[in-house]
Write a structure and sequence with these properties.
heterodimer; A: elongated; B: Serine Threonine Protein Phosphatase 5, Tetratricopeptide repeat; elongated; cell cycle (chain B); mitosis (chain B)
Amino acid sequence: MAGIVKPPGEFSITPHKVSVCILLQIYAPSAQISFHFPFASVAQHNRLGLFLLALTKSCDDILEPKLDELIGQLREVFGVLNPRFIDHLTTRLSALSSPDDLFNFFSEMRGILGSPESGALEDEQVILDPASNLGMFLRRCILAFNLLAFEGVCHLLTNIGVYCKEALSSCASYETTCFEDSSSNLEAFPEYENMDLENFVFKKVTEEIEARKRASERVSFHLHAPKALFNLVEDIEAPADPKSKHGDKVGEASSYVHPPDYALREFEPNSGIFLRTNWQIQGYLQEQADALEKNGSSFSLNAFELILRQLHKLAPELHRVHFLRYLNSLCHDDYFAALENLLRYFDYSAGTEGIDFVPPASGSNSFGRYEIALLFLGMMHFQFGHPKQALEVLTEAVRVSQQLSNDTCLAYTLAAICNLLSEIGVSSTAGILGSSFSPLTSIGISLSVQQQLFVLLRGSLKRAESLKLKRLVASNHLAMAKFDLTHVQRPLVSFGPKASMKLRTCPTNVCKELRLSSHLISEFSFESSTMTTDGAFSTAWLKNLQKPLGSAILSQENGSGSNENAFQFCVQPSSIPGSVLQLIGSSYLLRATAWELYGSAPLARINALVYATCFTDASSSSDAALAYVKLIQHLAVFRGYKGSVKKPNFSSCKKLNQVCCGEVLGGKKRLQEMVVLCANVTVMDADKGQMRYTPILKSSIVHFKLCLNITDPNVGLEAFAALKLAEEKFLSVSKSRILILKLQLLHERALHRGHLKLAQQVCDELGVLASSVTGVDMELKTEASLRHARTLLAANQYSEAAAVAHSLFCMCYKFNLQVENATVLLLLAEVHKRSGNAVLGLPYALASLSFCQSFNLDLLKASATLTLAELWLSLGSNHAKRALSLIQGALPMILGHGGLELRARAYIAEAKCYLSDPSFSVSENSEVVLDPLSQASVELQVLEYHELAAETFYLMAIVFHKLGQLEEREEAANSFKKHMMALENPLDDEDPLFNVL
Amino acid sequence: MNSKESCRSELRIAIRQLSDRCLYTASKWAAEQLMGIEQDPANFTPSNTRFQWGSSSIRRRFRTNEITSTPIAGVSYVSTPVMEEDDAVDGDFYLLAKSYFDCREYRRAAHVLRDQTGKKSVFLRCYALYLHVKLSSMELSHYYPRLVVGATKSINYAIIGLNTQYQKEAWYNEAGEKRKEEEVIELEGPLGKSDSVNHELVSLERELSTLRKNGSIDPFGLYLYGLVLKEKGSENVARTVLVESVNSYPWNWNAWSELQSLCTTIDTLNGLNLNNHWMKDFFLASAYQEIRMHSESLAKYEYLQGTFGYSNYIQAQIAKAQYSLREFQQVETIFEELLRNDPYRVEDMDMYSNVLYANECSSALSYLAHRVFMTDKYRPESCCIIGNYYSLKGQHEKSVMYFRRALKLNKNYLSAWTLMGHEYIEMKNTPAAVDAYRRAIDINPCDYRAWYGLGQAYEMMGMPFYALHYFRKSVFLQPNDSRLWISMAHCYETDQLRMLEEAIKCYRRAANCNDREAIALHQLAKLQYELGRPEEAAFYYKKDLERMEAEEREGPNMVEALLYLATYYKTQKRFEEAEVYCTRLLDFTGPEKETAKSLLRGMRTTQSGFPSMDVEHFSP
């Protein structure tokens, strides 16, 4: 029962195909038929041919257009000039009233196929080559018809009737042209009228139903009601129709997700008549799966569930539906439903259903592929935050796929385990990762999680490479890069003295891995894209046809236009599949993170920006949100939160204006230009054009604005404003990353401004998020307690702060979070510095420094150096020289890549060093002190960092006092007083974001 | 309870009314109950009792507690007035329509009644239309999957779903009418739900709802409306409508069974606002059974037997409940009686065959199979019985063939799916077994056997962790079955998982619910020993030993227990107990005897060498 290989899509005859056949007859009339359509020009004839080509190519599409849609397309392509096609089409269709008509029709169709020996061409006669695309299509249609049993013919006839009737009743404007000459229509339909009247026993129905009936059955034939009215009528119809219970809910759902007509058409009560082949439904499900993956949270759970349920009802043997249901419930965190559907899917299909299923070449394995079930179950547990169970299941998957020698599954499973290990801080895998597959446990060495991870990654990478799974290779490279970024590659077995041990991470390794991962795009191969080739592209054609061609053709309806049309028909969409784009996008995100850690602000920014401009279309919304988070964080650090000091200059105003114009005009082109412009600006501004890229141009206006604002330092948009924009954009995912970001920003700001209560509150919120039910996010947890310690420190509760930091350090140590370790150590040093125990602080600072060094965290290292200098300085004035030299060593890094706060601190420390140096006299070179101080004061005011600002002004006042500049001294003293006041009486001023909390 | 006489007269009228409306199953049911009522001694004639229970010994054996048949205090029955019939105005049309209906020409019957406004006519017209729709959609539904999946899986596609009462009715309403497989219409081509079919159902619903709003609907119409609503998926409304229907006309068993299929939890059942009528007791008994409240259901049936003492239906239902309580002996007796009274009965006989299978009575099973085969070989039950027979004979291929045939006749035949799964497990075709079990679960998610089967299948494939989920489901549904707990414990014990603590918990549960094969105690003792807890191990070995003594069984387990206990007490320096066990071991042959001897010898030397206080005290 399991392990069946499904035949490829069956070609079945539908009313739409009958229409295409009729059009074919118009295009290539047979010699026997008396009438020939006079084409206005050869170009027009050719255009019909192209159009037919497109139609036949898309005949395996999931959705077949309804008659009125087909007519609409015809109108667009041929303009108002030639409605006779349409008349002919509808007349022919409605003339088919008995099975015999259909038989005659198809035997007539056979006539238009040219026989191979009839070489003699009459002039103007188009002969359809049976081997051509169109000829093939026609032959398939005829064959499919001939295979039909009589019942099938009857059903086809019924369907054609419905197909015509729908078009007639909804295509209101059509009757004007059509009814006079095709009065036969009315004769063709009486049986339907009668049938309905017989069935609908409308004696005592309510007013509403009466109205509906009148509108949809009589009025439409004779009155020319505007479309809007019909929509209204359809709305009324919905509740009365039991089937449309699904229909109207689907409507709600689809309006969020995809083009509304898309899902609606498929499942609208009346249009569900024409069933698709297995292949087409599989394609539909595939598309939906992609959409779910991309922005899952914006799918409405119930609506999609309803669609799927209906689909299941219609096609009970199509088990893929269960898988989609699983995905849907996964996206909406419904654990039980997800589990249930996953198990059901695999119970039914044994893992051997779906487009991506490639039958085993040898045919030896007929026993299903339950290892895939295990893999999925493991990933599901992972998703729901059950790492232990996930590991259990994945281990089982490894074992089973080894048993069944399914190497592909094994490779994927290993990758999943790697992912699991690296994402979730499993403290010890002993006993979980069984002894069965790890090659090293047999030697009897116990490995740390990280070492195991490393071994696994290497193994997985090798396996993926040998199996030529391009995507897996790329993602393994990415995982490797991630590993290299944060973990030291300890030699697994170290003998003798630690001579060869190099306790460092290597940035070049990271870069290498990243580069290797993005090779994917160049050597992208057809790993599993056998199905997406023809059908999808031709679908895209026809969809595009409606958009650009509509205006283009109507506006230039002359001879020259046709060439362009031909060109447009052949334009194909980008052939890079979404999954590849996604992978490459995440490589950029990883790059941004890497540079963030290594301390290159511009590179981090530019990578995030590249991601935001080029890959947001393909990425999942949470990834896109991450990119925005990075950009906004960047803004906050480098430009403060709010209250711009600089005024936007003229050029940027102009630019903004242009963007706004673009918005108003709605012209996509202009917006695209803007993006190119602003992207160029970024490149030049940030990196002097080191990196070249071409933005793929499609995104929302908000997105452009955001990019523009982030890229252009002169536009006065700060982090909070940007955050607002981002919140708008990611309304659905705001729960996660954007919310965290908001809390972070709020906390930062509250600390600076001395709102300790607020800070504590925000901190608590973060803590709540960190202890969420869906698994523990170590990163967030560290972040929360780090911030907690900082809040305590700001409140001068040194011992508590130290205690929190200490326990945090222990945790980080336990889970091998080295990068965080460096930060925590630095915080501890800071705590000791603030509490006046400089001597105790020194070892912490040094430890932090060494961590930074081995992990190449340059910016953090600079800031650790700064702290070290401050510690030395507080040990007494005789250490001022040493402190100064330390600071000066770190200054290039700080000034180049540091944020406002760090820079200000460096300036102040530098000034203090000078001031405390007994050999330094203020009066001789006051600028050495005053310059950094004034710089610091400006930056701190932007940040509203009252405490440090007060200190700065205090120092300035002293300097001015020494210099004898009394006026300036007073001014500085005043500022000092102002900041002190602000610090002591924190005003609860308008805080736009806090209200949202 | 009402007097038997009033029941009788109510039923008599109801049977006529029901068959007048072509509700054949319901009228059959009612007639059976009518005959189930004890005859008046006044009308007593020998010929009347031929099909009755009077001569049987079963009542003496199982109906010991006559108290149950006294009425429950405080229950007053609502007497529902029997409906009057419409006038015979449309009688001729109606007669024609009914004839057409009887010949299964539903469209035609409906057409005849198109202008009739009498309630009866309206009902029959709607009912005919409904059956027509059902049949055409059945026709659609079984050629449609061919289209989607292709022709490879022949079995599942050619199936005709005879799942529901009305469909059966449609097929079986004429005696001797056999539906043949050739009737399966095969179509190819792009067809979905036929539009006209949908429209008819829609218009039907619309009409019925209007009628209901106007108040011009009779209970039969309400029943039909409930059917349509259920079809549509709006179960709550369907439930209310059906309750309305049964409250105003309680004798329509079809309505009750539809209502019961909509009550899957005790809460919904208690939420129903039903009038007290004796039919309600039938309903409740059957509903309790469906939601696995077997003892409650049994009590109800026993109470009903007070009136319907001779009802075969009630006997069969009691057998079903007993079967669920695993009282096979009683079930067998009941069925023997049933067959004696009603030799051509096919209903519920599959359960009898299950019991025979469990008791491994292959000759009785073959006799039963032959009997039903002669009666009606195209009943799913018959095929199932034959399947069971072949399975018992170890001919699994043939057995699968018959289960398939049963499923062809009724796609939603639950036990056939499960049994077929078992067969596939026997044949080591796990994917097929998984598929079969899953279908059973999708028909009824409370079927613990299918869950258990799934667990077994996955365990066979070496996926114990995956299997655990299924085992958990099955023990959740049937927490008192030791076999399930033991299988789950096995799963935990496998080499891949080694989750011994969990295994111990499962075994404990198994030991607590009357583990007949006595595996649990032994395993518990072994596991405890493995985990290094000798005391617990000794405790369980001792318990196991006690059990074996009580059941007078001997075997390797006994030897093992004795040996362990002897060595354990020896190490504990409780020599007397150790000696007792050692001497008992001496009764067995084999290496253990020698070990026991050497143990004894060892103990003696220790005792003589270092005489302890105790020994000295007691030794003469």
